[in-house]
Design a protein that fits this description.
Helix content: 40-55%
Mean pLDDT: 98
Strand order of the largest sheet: 2-1-3-4-5
Number of domains: 1
Binding site for substrate: 73, 79, 86, 100-101, 110
Oligomer: single chain
Radius of gyration: 14 Å
Number of helices: 6
EC number: 4.2.1.10
CATH class: Alpha Beta
CATH superfamily: Dehydroquinase, class II
Active site: 22 (proton acceptor), 99 (proton donor)
Structural class: alpha/beta
Pfam family, one: DHquinase_II
CATH architecture: 3-Layer(aba) Sandwich
Family: Belongs to the type-II 3-dehydroquinase family.
Shape: globular
Bound molecules: 1,3,4-trihydroxy-5-OXO-cyclohexanecarboxylic acid
């Protein structure tokens, strides 16, 4: 059994890009954090980062249907990608959306989150620690549904 971690555009630059906003942890650091949580539940992690919308959708269509849960930071796609939204709706797996920064305190174009109605919940503005909380939530949900 495995969790999926999906990262959208520019998140390959984590740790380097705007560290005051997005923190100093790199993408491999974040994936390792999620893996540590997943390990405690006996879950594997499969991850993808792409700057291309279609590549994320291809990955989700391939790996999503069998996943225990999906953790997604869609980056800016979260503000306007109806294609990603429709893909998550279609796959219909428990999904937690993470935004490192509090998008609601930033530019108005970041206030709209188009995945909102197809995700279980969102962790917004808690820095990269948010991934740990999101992973815990998905793992606990999976464990409870098994027992
Ligand atoms: C982000 C917020 C988005 O608005 C932005 O485009 C990102 C990162 C976040 O994690 O805070 O790339 O998703």
């Amino acid at each position: 059994p495995y969790l999926i971690v999906v990262h959208g555009p520019n998140l390959n630059r984590l740790g380097v890009r705007k560290p005051d906003t997005y923190g100093r942890r790199t993408l491999p650091d974040v994936i390792a954090m999620v893996q540590t949580v997943a390990d405690a539940y006996g879950l594997d992690v499969r991850d993808v980062q792409s700057n291309h919308e279609g590549a994320l959708i291809d990955f989700l269509q391939q790996h999503g249907p069998e996943a225990v849960g999906i953790l997604i930071n869609p980056g800016a796609f979260g503000h306007y990608s109806y294609a990603l939204r429709d893909c998550l709706e279609d796959i219909d797996r428990p999904t937690v959306e993470v935004h490192i920064s509090n998008v609601h305190k930033r530019e108005s174009f970041r206030h709209q989150l188009v995945l909102s109605d197809v995700v279980l919940g969102q962790v917004v503005g808690l820095g990269t620690d948010g991934y740990r909380y999101a992973a815990e939530a998905l793992c606990q949900r999976w464990q409870q549904q098994r027992s």
